[in-house]
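Quarterly update from the structural biology core.
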Amino acid sequence: QVQLVESGGGLVQAGGSLRLSCAASGTIARIDGMNWYRQAPGKQRELVAGITRGGSTNYADSVKGRFTISRDNAKNTVNLQMNSLKPEDTAVYYCNAGVLSSSSFRYLEVWGQGTLVTVSS
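Predicted structure, tokenized:
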């Protein structure tokens, strides 16, 4: 079994910052891409940022220049530094990863439970 656990959500005023963290645990042989998605009320889940095992990153246009994704391959963690937050960033943020299981040697797409970020105006 592989689990992703997010932390770091909360309430912040517009213009403020938050740092989300996600830790993977379980029977992990290798983690490839790691991503952050978000889902606002009444909207579809969208990709916010992604990072490959080698460190290449991509961002949604709406967060470029404000958010930074990073990872630690040794610790199986991924972070999302969010600066200059706006009310429209309010959403549940989900961690997602492509994981090769060390027990089944199957490739799994794993999701965290989500963490709520609320940005007040």
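The CA atoms of residues 23 and 75 lie 8 Å apart.
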